[in-house]
Specification:
The protein has helices spanning about 5, 10-45, 70-80, 115-120, 180-190, 205-220, 245, 250-255, 270-275, 275-285, 300-305, 315-325, 345, 350-355, 355-360, 370-380, 385-395, 400-430; strands spanning about 55-65, 85-90, 105-110, 125-130, 145-150, 175, 200, 230-235, 260-265, 290-295, 310, 330, 360-365. With about 425 residues, the protein is of the alpha/beta class. The strands form 2 sheets. A 7-stranded parallel β-sheet has the order 3-2-1-4-5-6-7. A 6-stranded parallel β-sheet has the order 10-9-8-11-12-13, sandwiched between helices.
Length: about 425
């Protein structure tokens, strides 16, 4: 590295610390200015003006990427139907949620990308904040003193232990779809001596909505997965050093093309940020053509629906594909390295990887030589059907009820906080 550039380099830990210091200074300035402004308004109004400008948002929803709109939309529709006011905040300028106009109780707001979004969240005033984003209070995203309760929902009915380390430690509550998620979270809390979070089994609105759309497609004529009469194979890996594209790279795409089948490659969206050099190399080496397409849709429904079989690694898309679409999967053995993840603390195989043999075939270096035969065998073998249904029941509780149960929880939690606030205000008046 150029020595002059090296002097400008700031490692992530130092960068996070500097960001935290900056946020602290901005916070002091903000609250000092706010206090002065309130006093000025009070004097100008003759002592009658109430401070209504900075009211707390009842339920704030934060999405760090547009692809998670499909996770939140079913829940927001249910809350809107009940008349619960929410604000949907997104870090994606082209988030489809910003265009919604049907939900009168749901406001949407673009709060900027990256650190700009976190800077706003760090001073947010809300009763409840709901998000799929891990890493709260770990790096740039800090808990706001004016948010009473942080609630996390996973974006698939898969792991809580394959988040990057400490990803969900500082949330107050998790709304989950499987008992295994509760068990793993409690084990991590015990090992790391963390305060017990509120863990609630609610099901998955995201999966429910996918299942509803899939059933609607099945009932219509628009459900053909074949491209010109040939089979379609979807490669949808996770990201990081243990993922398929990192481990096998271009050789694996060559193996797929050699099958003669139509190939959809859908990298994890994070790959285009954290592994940009690899993505640029692969997309240049394998440009789109009649046999190969690169899929970057914000919603993965169409790619999953059009595909006959999925090849993946430890990505949560395995569960979307096998449990909703009831289709076979092939999972590559990439020698999963647990060290960056919370799974490292448990010293056992993550649940999602442990159930793969019940969902489909396992791809190894040895059997990669005849990938076409492996694909054909999986598509023609119905022995995995029953076990897929068993895994579905383990991972996806209260099927079809997720939005209702999550909305029940959030509405009751909001009412509880509001009641406490009224009691506090009443006591202050009496004093």
């Amino acid at each position: 590295m150029n020595p002059s550039l090296l002097r400008l380099y700031i490692d992530p830990g130092t960068g996070s610390m500097l960001f935290a210091i900056l946020i602290g200074l901005l916070g002091v300035a903000r609250f000092a200015f706010k206090g002065l402004w309130v006093k000025i308004r009070f004097l100008l109004s003759g002592g009658k003006q109430k401070d209504n400008i900075d009211k707390a948002i009842p339920i704030a929803v934060f999405s760090d990427d547009k692809r998670y709109w499909s996770v939140f939309e079913p829940l927001l529709r249910e809350l809107d139907k009940r008349g619960v006011d929410c604000v949907y905040m997104t870090a994606s300028e082209d988030d489809p949620g910003l265009k919604q106009t049907e939900m009168s109780h749901v406001k949407t707001e673009y709060i900027g990308p990256g650190n700009k979004a976190f800077a706003k969240l760090n001073f947010l005033k809300a009763t409840i904040l709901l998000s799929t984003t891990p890493g709260l209070d770990v790096y740039q995203w800090k808990r706001s003193k004016d948010v009473k309760y942080y609630v996390h929902i996973p974006h698939s009915p898969a792991e809580m232990t394959t988040y990057r380390m400490f990803g969900i430690d500082y949330y107050d509550a998790l709304l989950l779809s499987g008992q295994f998620q509760i068990d793993d979270t409690r084990d991590i809390e015990a090992i790391r001596k963390l305060p017990a979070k509120e863990l609630v089994l609610t099901g998955s609105p995201f999966m429910d909505e996918k299942a509803r759309k899939f059933k609607a497609r099945l009932a219509s004529s628009d459900n053909s997965s074949n491209q010109n009469g040939t089979r379609t194979v979807l490669l949808a890996p996770s990201w990081g050093t243990s993922s398929i594209l990192s481990r096998y790279g271009s050789e694996f795409i060559k193996d797929l093309l050699a099958t003669g089948y139509h190939i959809i490659v859908r990298p994890h969206p994070q790959s285009f940020t954290s592994e940009k050099e690899l993505m640029d190399k692969l997309m240049t080496e394998f440009p789109e053509n009649d046999q190969l397409e690169w899929n970057r849709d914000s919603d993965n429904f169409d790619a999953l629906n059009r595909s006959d079989i999925l090849i993946s690694d430890f990505s949560g898309v395995i569960f979307d594909f096998s449990l909703v679409f009831d289709k076979p999967v092939i999972c590559a053995d990439t020698e999963f390295d647990a060290s960056p993840y919370d799974a490292w603390w448990l010293k056992r195989l993550p649940w999602g990887l442990s159930v793969i043999p019940r969902l489909g075939a396992k791809l190894t270096k040895e059997n990669r030589a005849d990938l076409k035969k492996m694909i054909d065998d999986c598509l023609e073998d119905e022995s995995f059907t029953e076990s897929r249904h068993q895994v579905r029941d383990e991972a996806w509780a209260y099927q079809g009820e997720g939005a209702t149960r999550m909305a029940d929880y959030l509405e009751n939690k909001l009412a509880s906080f509001n009641q406490t606030t009224k009691q506090d205000e009443s006591e202050q008046k009496e004093q």
